[in-house]
Amino acid sequence: MAAPSDDLRRLLISRYRYGPDMVDIAWRAHFQCEYCDKDLLGSVDAYEWHWEREHVVPTVRGGDDALHNWALACRTCNQFKGAWDPRSDATSPTDRDALVASARAYIQRRRAERGSELDVVRGLILAELDR
Q1: From CA 28, how far away is CA 11, in angstroms rounded?
Q2: 29 falls within a domain
């Protein structure tokens, strides 16, 4: 994939909230969460509040601040992943794509668990409201 033009890069850095590294991270990810594919340019809410750069391998687990260790993530995925280390489940603990895939699978499991919990809570609340 070609890099953004110099004009676009300058515009994103000077007029909008992007730093030089964020331009590269977001561009590489096509402005989508690397874990759930949420379009981070798809709405004002997504653009304003729902995306962050995230360490693929957390620094507390030995990850670094190099570009290869940053992922573009929606806030929800970033919170679900937390400091979990994807090397524990990755097919290759040094391949970025394998690490991102491992983190994606972990986050999907966490989302499913929370979804089940939400179903129970929703049912309890709706039953109480119907009384």
Answers
A1: 17
A2: yes
The tally of domains found in the chain comes to 1
- Cα–Cα distance between 33 and 11 in angstroms, integer? 22
Cβ–Cβ under 8 Å, residues 16 and 8: no
Residue 1 belongs to a domain: no
* Of 63, 5, 56, residue with least CA distance to 29: 56
Residue 34: CB atoms within 10 A of its CB come to 23
Residue 7 per-residue DSSP state: H
> Which range marks the domain in which residue 87 is found?
6-129
9-42, pLDDT tens digit by residue? Answer: 888 888 887 888 989 999 999 999 999 999 999 9
108: in domain: yes
- How many Å apart are CA 36 and CA 115, to the nearest integer? 15
Residue reference for tokens 């730093």: 19
Placement of tokens 């937390």 in the chain = 82
Structure tokens at 42: 């798809």
Q: Helices then strands (H, E): number in the chain?
A: 5, 2
